[in-house]
Prior knowledge:
By secondary structure, this protein is an alpha+beta fold. The chain contains three helices and five strands; from the N terminus they run ααβαββββ.
Amino acid sequence: MEKARRIFNCIQxxxxxxxxxxxxxxxxxxxxxxxNNLHNIKITEEAASGDSKAAAKFPAKLKTMIEQGNxxxxxxxxxxxxxxxxxxxxxxxxxxxxxxxxxxxKAAKDRLTLLLGGNASGEISN
Length: 126
């Protein structure tokens, strides 16, 4: 409702027309949702699924590979990319009734991406 008020005020300011009034009441908003066939759902993280069983087995398998290959701990690295977002993402959104659920969302590109790494000996690099 607040967004509708802001849009109306911007349009009114551009048109320099102050004769029209607009009240974004709860009734107006409910009729708007019904008219446009929208419903409110909770947003989940990006649609991606991992194999949790394989992930649970991996540390032991990696340790065996390192020992069998006789690799020094200075040459065994773990690197992770992370993004720092500075815009607040919404927790909920409206969808058409034809869409039963959000399939995930593509996050905004307003971010700082970091690549952090460290080796098995405890040395950290970035």
